[in-house]
Amino acid sequence: MYLHRYTVVALIVLTLVASTGLKAGPILNGDITIIDPPASVLEGGLTSDTTAFLIKEALRYRVNDPVLAGLWNVAVGTMVDVWMLHTDPVAPSVHFSGTIEFARPILHLDTTLAAMKASDPFMQILTGTLYEQDRVERGLGPVDHTSFGGNTLSYNWVTQVVVDQARIVTEAETPEPLTMGLTGLGCGAIGLMLRRRKARQQA
Q1: Which of 31, 78, 153, 177 could cross-link to 148 by cystine, CB 3.0-4.6 Å?
Q2: What is the pLDDT of residues 56-79, one digit of tens each?
Q3: Which sign does the torsion angle of CA 66, 71, 75, 80 carry?
Q4: Distance (Å, rounded) from C-alpha 102 to C-alpha 52?
Q5: Phi/psi class of residue 15: alpha, beta or left (left: φ > 0; alpha: ψ in -120 to 50)?
Q6: How far apart are CA 122 and CA 61, in angstroms?
Q7: Which residue(s) pair with 100 in the sheet?
Q8: 120 has a pLDDT exceeding 80
Q9: Alpha helices, DSSP H only, in 37-176?
Q10: pTM of the predicted structure, to 2 decimals
Q11: Counting Cβ atoms within 10 Å, is residue 63 exposed (0-12), middle (13-18) or buried (19+)?
């Protein structure tokens, strides 16, 4: 009896541990932080002289619209994670740099006002965030350098006017098979324990 109870407890613990690995999230290097979608990324809407913001615009988003699929160069039905890198200092000129290592490969990068404007409406439906639509400075300028390969994006920006932004599309992060197996095993053990307890109460 006690061994059975200890086994169930161990499986519950494994379930909790496994569930924490479902979304490992990007690994950040530099003065940057991950945030949920804010109300606004217009000029003055999300400011910092020391920190860049990586905004979670959409996680496990299925690209069903052929127009959006064309903009991002992915097949219709592809599952993606969508992020926005945003800087908006109060000071007239601030340098931001760092790297972001995503869990899955980067599929597409938008760094111009026109490219981001084209996909803004799709993201705004999900986030409710207000995006800058008229200022060309929103896109990256000649002093802003961004590159990516595989899962990793590097940025070296000098934000001088309005905001600097880039939209990053990666493959959707999915749970590892081991994580899914541990989660399923733990949930099954919890269900079995509850059914046995109910049976004893009815006996």
Answers
A1: 153
A2: 999 999 999 999 999 999 999 999
A3: negative
A4: 16
A5: alpha
A6: 11
A7: 28, 153
A8: yes
A9: 66-72, 113-127
A10: 0.77
A11: buried
The three-class DSSP label of residue 142 is coil
3-state helix, strand, coil in the chain (%, to 5): 35, 35, 35
Rounded Cα distance, 18 and 175, in Å: 9
Tokens of 125: 């439906």
- Residue labelled with tokens 């003065």: 31
* Average pLDDT, integer, range 112-126: 97
Indicate whether 3 pLDDT > 90.
Answer: no
Residue that the structure tokens 């052929």 belong to? 66
Q: Which one-letter DSSP state was computed for residue 137?
A: G
Q: Please state, in angstroms and as integers, the Cα–Cα distance from residue 59 to each residue in 41, 76, 165, 198, following that order.
A: 19, 16, 19, 38
Cβ count near 112 (within 10 Å) = 14
Report whether 111 contacts 166 (CB < 8 A). yes
Dump pLDDT digits (tens) for 169-187: 999 998 644 444 444 554 4
Give the tokens for residue 167. Answer: 């939209």
Give the residue carrying structure tokens 């600097």: 164
| 32-41, 112-121, 130-139, 186-195: range with lowest mean pLDDT | 186-195
Q: CB of 159 within 8 A of CB of 93?
A: yes
